[in-house]
Amino acid sequence: MPSNPPTVTARAGTNIALVKYWGKRDAALNLPAAGSLSLTLADLGSTTRVRFAADLAGDRVSFEGRAADPRFAGRVSRFLDLVRTRAGLRHFAEVATSNTVPTAAGLASSAAGFAALALAASRAAGLHLSPTELSELARRGSGSAARSIFGGFVAMEPGVRSDGSDAVAHGLLDENAWDVRLCVAITAEGEKAVGSSEAMERTAQTSPYYADWLASVPADLEQARAAVETRNLGALGAVAERSALRMHACAMAADPPILYWNPATLAVLATTRQLRADGTAAFFTIDAGPHVKVVCTAVDAAKVKAALASTPGVMRVLVLTPGPGARIVGESSG
C-alpha cells in the first residue's frame, strides 16, 4: 500500500425485492436459498468513506458523524477482514457512513450500506474488482447487498457452489430503461421487532410452509424476468404481490410467528387493490417490515401517492425512482 493511502467514498442505492429473498442455504457465507429480483433506487441509499492507515490501532467506524454502536462496528470490521485478506493488507481502517434509509425498518438499509462499503473498501485497499466480484463480496455483508452493486432491475442467482462464487447478481434493465416509480407508504416509526436474519432462520427452521415457499420461487423468477424484459407492469406486479404474500405467510407460520404488518399495512393493500379496480396499474410488495411499496408508472405516481397518503395510518409517502448501481463519488490521496 502507498505511504499516502487513498481515501475512497462510494455511494449505493437501496433495492427493493419484487421476487423475494427469504432464507439462506449457508448463513456464514450469506448464500441465498433461492434467487430474487429487485429494483435499485436512486433516492434512498448509503454513502461510505474508507481509508486504511498504518497508524491506526483498530478500525474506527462512525455512523452519521458519531461513533458507531459496537454491534454495527463489529459487523463492519468483520467485513473489512474479508477485504484485508483479499488484498494482503494488515492496516486498520477509518470508515464513515451516512444513510438516507431508515435503519432496520424494512427498507433494505443494509443492502445499500454493504454495497457502498464493498466498493469503497476494496478500492481503498488497492483492489479493482469487477461488478460480479463486487457483488460476491457485498453479499458477504448482506445478502441483498449483492443486488445494489447494479442499477435498475437486477436478478440474483442463488448459485450451487459451496464457496458461493456463483451466488451473484447481474443487471436486467438499467435505471433509464423503464419509467416506473416505487411509492413507499410509511406505516410506522423505529426499528422492526425481529431482524431479517433472525426471522429468516426462524422461518426456515420452524415454518411448515418453508419448503413450498422455496419451491415456488423459480417459477416466479421466470415470470418476473419475462415481464421485465417486455416492460409488462401488470405481469410483474402480479408476481410481486404473490411473492410478497407467500413470503409473509411463510413467516407468519413460523414458531413463534413473525408478523411485521400493522393495521395500516392492511389498509394500504386495500387501497392498492381499489386503485386497480378503478383502472390504475398499481401493485404492492412488502419486505420484512410494516411498510408497503407500490409499483406504478411515472404517469400514475401522483395519483398513487395521493391515494396512499389518504389511507388511515399512513404517516407519509415517498415516491422513488430507479437508480444506478454502486459507484465511486470521491477519491483522494493522503
Describe this structure in words.
- With 334 residues, the chain is of the alpha+beta class.
- It folds into 2 domains: 6-177, 2-Layer Sandwich (Ribosomal Protein S5, domain 2); 180-320, GHMP kinase, C-terminal domain (Alpha-Beta Plaits), CATH 3.30.70.
- Helices cover 37% and strands 27% of the residues.
- The protein is built from 9 helices and 14 strands.
- Strands 1, 4, 5, 6, 7, 8, 9 and 14 form an 8-stranded mixed β-sheet that branches.
- The longest helix has 20 residues, at 210-229.
Strand content: 25-35%
Main sheet summary: 8 strands, mixed
Query: Are there runs of 5+ residues with pLDDT below 50, and where?
Result: none
What is the number of helical segments per DSSP (H or I, 4+ residues)? Answer: 9
- Computed structural class: alpha+beta
CATH topology of the largest domain: Ribosomal Protein S5, domain 2
Q: How far is the N terminus from the C terminus?
A: 12 Å
Return the domain count: 2
Question: Class of the largest domain, according to the CATH hierarchy?
Answer: Alpha Beta
